[in-house]
Amino acid sequence: MRIPLLVLLLTGSAYAATTFSVPDGELRDPLVLVTYGDMRFTQTTETEASNPRARRALVAKIATENPAAIFLNGDIPWHGLAADYGVFRHETRPWRARHLRVYPALGNHEFTVCLEWACLEHWWDTFPELRGRRWYSVAIGTKVVSFELDSDASLLPGSEQRMWLEDQVTDLAPGVRLVLIVMHHPPVADVQTIILTDHNPRPNEVALAEYLKTVAPQSTARFVVSAGHIHNYERFTEGGVVYLVSGGGGARPYEVDRTPRDLYQSGDFPNYHYVRFELHGDRVVGEMIRLEDHDAVRPKRWQSRDRFEITLQP
Predict the structure, then answer these.
(1) Is residue 23 part of a domain?
(2) What separation in angstroms does the CA of 275 have from each of 129, 166, 224?
(3) Residues 6+ apart with CB under 8 A from 64
(4) How far does Cα 191 stand from its chain's mean position?
(5) How far, in Å, CA of 77 to CA of 11, rounded?
């Protein structure tokens, strides 16, 4: 069963370096984008590793946003098996009913219990437009470009993926004003000293943050990184780059000890959520939309629990 996600292979010279695109004429004003991750779609009888009620509530709520694109930052299945992707297809029917565009990035749970080649076959069977690719780029109109990275592969200087990304950033069209990097493991996060220390930023992703420190200040575009892996919400600004941890898609929530540099200091828990971006001329408004009544039989109460703005160049 095909899922309508990547809609147009680029042929225009203005976007020669990107993989896919959506023309401006197919986009609404204001432009709305959604990012989130760590859903762990799996059988609904599994309620310890993932919360099926929260998963389904998030899918339904995101559908009502009617976003131009939904970016998934990994751990879409629980085990990476065909059965998990079957649940994903079943539970995301509201997205397909609205013909929403979905752009996924690989996480570690995409490779949990099968050999790499077999897990990738399940991934590509679910997202056939991506066959043969583990990372790719998307132009959403003329002002937004997204890079979907694979943090299971190397992002260190000189690696294949890193060189590809550097070429992509170098070849950004002059009109691009927002660059959204979607990945699973976070380059910046609240560093834990007691719990979840194995989820702290790794050298592989820290190397990406160091690279962005050098290119973001020189670019006419603003950079936002949306990652997951930590099943909570965090927000940082470093070197002019906004770093989000958006791992509230349904997987078992993780509590975190928040450090002072985290711009989100609420004690709310759990934070099942998604992040909504809305573009208004020379600014982007970001909001963390949190599911309030997550324990309800049919959760339906939502809160805007974090709001931030990014100023774009004219």
Answers:
(1) yes
(2) 25, 26, 12
(3) none
(4) 20
(5) 33
Gap between the Cα atoms of 85 and 174, Å rounded: 38
Range of the domain at 172: 13-311
pTM equals 0.94
CA distance 230 to 180: 19
pLDDT digits (tens, 9 = 90+) for 105-128: 999 999 999 999 999 999 999 999
Is pLDDT above 60 for 16? no
The Cα 149–Cα 96 span in angstroms is: 24
Does residue 163 form part of some domain?
Answer: yes
Separation of alpha carbons 77 and 56, rounded Å: 14
Rounded to 5°, the CA angle 135-238-305 comes to 85
The CATH number linked to 230 is 3.60.21.10
- What kind and span of H or E run contains 206? helix 203-215
pLDDT tens digit sequence for 186-236: 999 999 999 999 999 999 999 999 999 999 999 999 999 999 999 999 999
CA atoms of 216 and 211, how far apart (whole Å): 9
Tell me how far apart the alpha carbons of residues 288 and 233 are, in angstroms, rounded to a whole number.
Answer: 8
Q: Is residue 5 part of a domain?
A: no
Q: What is the mean pLDDT of the chain?
A: 94
Does residue 94 belong to any structural domain of this protein?
A: yes
What DSSP letter does each residue of 220-258 carry, written as one string?
SSEEEEEE-SSSSEEEEEETTEEEEEE--SSBPP-----
Residue 58 has pLDDT above 80, yes or no: yes
Q: What is the tally of structural domains in the chain?
A: 1
- Which residues make Cβ contacts (< 8 Å) with residue 50, sequence separation at least 6? 39, 40, 41, 42, 78, 250, 251, 252
DSSP assigned state of 30: S
- In this predicted model, what pLDDT tens digit does every residue of 261-313 receive, in sequence order? 999 999 999 999 999 999 999 999 999 999 999 999 999 999 999 999 999 99
| Residues in Cβ contact with 311 at an 8 Å cutoff, skipping those fewer than 6 apart | 222, 282, 283
